[in-house]
Design a protein that fits this description.
One of its GO terms (molecular function) is polygalacturonase activity. The protein has 2 helices and 46 strands. The strands form 6 sheets. It has a 20-stranded mixed sheet that branches. Strands 14-19-22-25-28-31-34-36-38-42-45 form an 11-stranded parallel sheet, with no helix packed on it.
Length: 501
């Protein structure tokens, strides 16, 4: 009996101790990575998350004025501020500005963030990981981007011989080719400074020799991931090269890293299968600094990304002899369109493209010369079964376009076909109408022009044999009102338009 009583007392005592022991364990809610030494940080903003200081980086962006923006070779640029961390649950973020805060806008609006203002400081709650832009006192151009990541899972072992590991600190990298079963891992606090190789090498891409990208994923089960930064600013303008190229690869993962100042297409995915691009952050300002270019590839998922790119953000293309495009899905991305298209197909379409879905994305700025949501066909293949669903556009100039024709990018004599395209649950707010741009108006001449038909919707076929057909608009809302057929411009080579069925 006495022994039994001792056991009961011991068990009870242990139970009483359990919550005390658990409460003493520190639960990590947020993870901040220190900046490497010798990196110039922003002097504009101070950012804290859960009372921890977050490094704020600088990176170049295009200039704000419309016409110089389109010729960045002159050297004009602005500077954006970038703060990044990992989070596991709701966090409190504070931002200090160098001036008294009179007004603040936090984008995307769909996040429904309500900041509080006190002097030169704003505070707000971020309920889940995501990428927000903070604009203070109407300064939209040189704004603050806060990139909040999920906590990492399955971080690779640095001792694994198949892991190319970069720890915290600055690393100079000229070129790395990733082969079967290899992973490049950039730990939080790693800063890759891309440099030119001592001896230039080339790779054949679509029948052309190109300078080797900084990273090439060329094999099966290949990856580049982590929370580090890749900076291509040291690559001269004339020496431009891709940042991360997936080339004839299978089972590809590109996840988590942040890319500053890409010197050309940032992440081209070419002739590859089963590709996952997740939580990539891209801020670029040079000509042709696209975000993710999906060409002649299949089974591609792009999600949870932030892209402020000078040229196309997410774009799908196909080239003759390199395979069709099928089953491409882009979702939960935040896009800032500086020049060209936010979410698009084209211009080069030499082989069929089908089963494409863009959904649940926010376009927080659309300040360029082209169309935010576009199917842009300059060659001879068939584009079919394309859906744009649940897209929120906060500043629309040219809103929607399906277009077949000839441009400077055309390489085929024959024209193509566009069919079965749906625009569903699209909300957009018109941008100011008095905007002067320089570009290929109607796909022909490079010249200045005024956008007169702002937030336009255009459907243009080529001839009786090359149609734009079976186009559906369902719950497309512009400036708070559902569109009707009078707001859609089309020509004689467009068939079967359905509006709000």
């Amino acid at each position: 009996m006495i022994g039994k009583l001792k056991r009961i007392i011991l068990v009870g005592f242990s139970v009483l101790l359990m919550p005390i022991s658990c409460s003493q364990k520190k639960i990590e809610v947020v993870r901040v990575y220190p900046a490497p030494n010798n990196i110039d940080l922003s002097a504009v903003f101070k950012v804290t998350v859960e009372n921890q200081n977050v490094p704020v980086y600088n990176t170049r962006i295009p200039p704000s004025k419309p016409i110089p923006r389109l010729n960045p070779i002159r050297g004009e640029f602005g500077l954006a501020s970038i703060a990044s961390f990992d989070m596991d649950e709701s966090v409190t973020i504070s931002v200090e500005s160098p001036e008294q805060v009179e007004s603040v806008k936090i984008l995307p609006t769909s996040y429904n963030i309500k900041p509080t203002i006190s002097g030169n400081k704003i505070t707000f709650q971020l309920e889940h990981p995501g990428h927000v832009t903070v604009e203070i006192n109407g300064e939209w151009h040189e704004s603050l981007h806060i990139l909040a990541n999920l906590f990492e899972v399955d971080r690779p072992d640095p001792k694994n011989p198949d892991v190319i590991y970069f720890g915290p600190g600055i690393h100079e990298v000229s070129q790395i080719t990733v082969k079967d079963n290899q992973t490049v891992y950039l730990a939080g606090g790693a800063y890759i400074r891309c440099v030119l190789p001592e001896q230039e090498e080339e790779i054949e891409v679509r029948g052309h020799l190109r300078k080797k990208p900084t990273f090439i994923l060329d094999g099966t089960n290949v990856a580049i991931k982590g929370r580090g930064i890749i900076d291509q600013s040291a690559i001269p303008k004339k020496e431009r090269r891709y940042t991360i190229l997936a080339h004839k690869a299978k089972n590809v993962t590109i996840e988590g890293v942040t890319i500053f100042d890409p010197s050309h297409w940032t992440i081209p995915i070419q002739s590859s299968d089963n590709v996952h691009v997740d939580n990539i952050k891209i801020i670029g300002w040079r000509g042709n600094a696209d975000g993710v270019d999906i060409t002649s590839s299949r089974d591609v998922l792009v999600e949870n990304c932030f892209m402020r790119t000078f040229d196309d953000a997410v774009v799908i293309k196909s080239f003759g002899g390199y395979g069709e495009v099928n089953n491409v899905h882009t979702r939960k991305c935040v896009v800032w369109n500086e020049l060209a298209h936010s979410l698009s197909i084209g211009a080069e379409v030499h082989e069929n493209i089908s089963n494409v879905l863009f959904e649940d994305c926010d376009v927080i700025h659309d300040v360029g010369r082209e169309t935010a949501l576009r199917v842009y066909h300059c060659d001879d293949a068939v584009i079919s079964n394309v859906t744009f669903d649940n897209i929120r556009i906060e500043e629309a100039r040219r809103l929607i376009s399906c277009w077949i024709g000839k441009t400077r990018w055309t390489e085929t004599e024959e024209r193509g076909h566009i069919k079965n395209v749906m625009f569903k649950n699209i909300t957009a707010t018109s941008a100011p109408i008095d905007t002067t741009l320089t570009g290929f108006q109607d796909g022909t001449d490079w010249k200045p022009y005024i956008i007169k038909n702002h937030a336009s919707i255009n459907l243009i076929g080529f001839d009786d044999d090359h149609l734009v057909e079976d186009i559906v608009f369902e719950n497309v809302v512009l400036d708070g009102k559902a569109i009707d057929s009078t707001q859609i411009t089309s020509n004689a080579f467009v068939k079967n338009i359905t509006v709000n069925k």
